Amino acid sequence: MSRKSLLINVLDSTYDQESWYAPLKPSIEGITAEQACWKPSGEAAKSIWENVNHVMYYKERLVAQLEGNEWPYNLSGDENFHFTKQSSDETEWKNIIERVEEAHLKLRDLLMKKTDEEIRELEGKLMDIFLHDAYHTGQIMQIRKLQGAWPSNR
């Protein structure tokens, strides 16, 4: 397996191709905006929506950089949990899910077009993002379990 194929495989397994762990896409499917906004007690607790904002911010930023576009946002790791405003509006939540999908598909397409040399230059950054996505996906699943909103057959 080439390095590019390996990285594409890891990208897909963290987003929508279940392997050793559940990926992001199924972890956010089927939940309502209300569930996405709910958070456990505790000052440091985050909602599903906030976690999705956080992973979306970094993936969209990387896509912009790879496309040669200026990234207009300069948010810290704490600030980007609030990258988009949480809402009880189902349409707003669906828009966020679509943005996550779009960022994944764009990143995948961009990586497919990269040369082996370009991939080698990016692989450290890519692995950081992929591991980061897996970490926050685990948090999302835990929040869903606390809500009683995670399927018992998983």
Structural notes for this entry:
It is a single chain. With 154 residues, the chain is mostly helical. 63% of the residues lie in helices and 0% in strands. The chain is built from six helices and no strands. Helix 1 runs parallel beside helix 6 and helix 4 packs parallel to helix 5. It is globular and about 45 Å long. The two termini are 29 Å apart.
| Radius of gyration, CA atoms, in whole angstroms | 16 Å
Mean pLDDT, nearest integer?
Answer: 94
Number of helices: 6
**Which residues sit in consecutive blocks of at least 5 with pLDDT less than 50?**
none
Query: Percent helix among the residues?
Result: 55-70%
Structural class: mainly alpha
Order of helices and strands: HHHHHH
Number of strands: 0
**What distance lies between the first and last C-alpha atoms, to the nearest angstrom?**
29 Å
Name the descriptors.
mainly alpha; 6 helices
In a few lines, what is going on in this structure?
With 154 residues, the protein is mainly α.
